[in-house]
Amino acid sequence: MRLTCPHCGSIATIRTSKELASTVREAKAQCNNVECAHTWIARIVAERTIAPSMQPKPGVYIPLSPRSPAAASPAKNQMELGMEFPLPRPG
């Protein structure tokens, strides 16, 4: 991920980060331009799902992006599988 300084436009570096929630991190960013030296806090949020996880964590919900192929409605004759239990592996 490339982060740029909101003041001078130079590349910035994330110095530290901490988890606020399973879908939110707070990061301390610092401008690499020594003449600017701006330091700020940024938040990184998991906002939309493009491809669903094959190992979903209970309690974590990240909505599907409308453009995600997974958001397309299934065929009318196709059954939906419950994902509570893993599928059996072929022999």
- The structure class reads mainly beta
What best-fitting shape do the alpha-carbon axes yield?
Answer: elongated
β-sheet strand percentage: 25-35%
Could you give the order of strands across the largest sheet?
1-2-3-4
- Helix proportion: under 10%
The count of strands amounts to 4
Features:
4-stranded antiparallel beta sheet; 31% strand; Ogr/Delta-like zinc finger family protein; 91 residues; mainly beta
Describe the structure in brief:
This is Ogr/Delta-like zinc finger family protein. This protein has 91 residues and is an all-beta fold.
What do you see in this structure?
Helix content is 0%, strand content 31%. By secondary structure, the protein is mainly β. A four-stranded antiparallel sheet has the order 1-2-3-4, with no helix packed on it.
Question: Helices and strands in order, then pairings?
Answer:
Layout: E1 3-4, E2 11-21, E3 24-31, E4 39-45
Antiparallel strand pairs: 1-2, 2-3, 3-4
InterPro entries: Znf_Ogr/Delta
Protein name: Ogr/Delta-like zinc finger family protein
Domain Zinc finger Ogr/Delta-type: 4-50
